[in-house]
Design a protein that fits this description.
Layout: H1 4-8, H2 19-37, E1 40-42, E2 45-47, H3 51-58, H4 63-76
Antiparallel strand pairs: 1-2
Length: 77
Amino acid sequence: MTLIRPVLTHACRTWTLSVWDINNLLVFERQILGKISGSIQCKEGWRIRSNKELQKLIKGAESVQYTKAQSIKRWEH
């Protein structure tokens, strides 16, 4: 997340997020995390990590939540 979030959320204080934008951010974030974290070896062979497993890895620190928090900060100032 240290490498992904700054690139993904650059200038996010100026964004207005639609449902489409949020979905695309989540998809992109999970694709990148899946590639970085790699595959898992199981009984049947190798498999990619599920969304739930990726969620555990980032411990709920999604970029969308961060982006929304930054937008709220913009309006508070």
